[in-house]
Amino acid sequence: MDLFYKLFKFGAVGMAGMAVDYTITFLCKEVLKIQKYMANALGFAVAASFNYYLNRIWTFNSQNQAVLGEYSSFILVSLIGLAINTSILWIFTSKLKWNFYLAKLIAIGITVFWNFFGNMMFTFE
Q1: What is the DSSP string of 22-90?
Q2: What angle do CA 104, 106, 112 make, to 5 degrees?
Q3: What is the Cα–Cα distance from 70 to 76, expressed in whole angstroms?
Q4: For the chain, what is the largest distance between any 2 Cα atoms, rounded to a whole number of angstroms?
Q5: Rounded to whole angstroms, how far apart are CA atoms 26 and 101?
Q6: pLDDT score, position 44
Q7: How far apart are CA 35 and CA 58, in angstroms?
Q8: 124 CB contacts (<8 Å, ≥6 apart)?
């Protein structure tokens, strides 16, 4: 049962992170006119740091004093997630010609599972 509760909390943090990601991505792409994949990466970077903090204190209740090492592990798992996310985004937008934001939503949905299990087993073991 604890696994499902953590997954629920991870999902709640992820939803908040997705709002941060979408906001930063939108501002970078539409307002600042930054290339869409770079805007996606910037949205990811801000959201990943936001998510680390909330997952550390709430989802996984980490007491690890080596915060820099733990953060580095979280970012590594997240970077692999970014590669998965960007690949899916590229396939849906470049090959299938889907709407960028719909494709991004699907990419996030798929990447969530990698991020949860990667962080549960590697970052917050």
Answers
A1: HHHHHIIIIIS---HHHHHHHHHHHHHHHHHHHIIIIIS----S-HHHHHHHHHHHHHHHHHHHHHHHH
A2: 100
A3: 10
A4: 46
A5: 9
A6: 85
A7: 34
A8: 55, 56, 59, 60, 62, 64, 70
> Is-contact 28 39, C-beta < 8 A?
yes
- Helix orientation angle between 36-54 and 67-90, rounded to the nearest 10 degrees: 140
Cα(9)–Cα(20) distance, rounded to whole angstroms?
Answer: 17
Q: Which residue has the tokens 């719909």?
A: 102
- Averages of pLDDT over runs of 10 residues in the chain (125 residues) are 90 93 96 95 91 96 94 94 92 96 89 92 91
Which residue in the block uniquely carries the two structure tokens 């970012």? 75
Give the list of residues 6+ apart from residue 7 with CB closer than 8 angstroms, or none.
Answer: 116
Chain centre to alpha carbon of residue 83: 11
* The two three-digit tokens of residue 6, written as one number: 């953590």
Give the integer Cα–Cα distance in Å for 67 and 69: 5
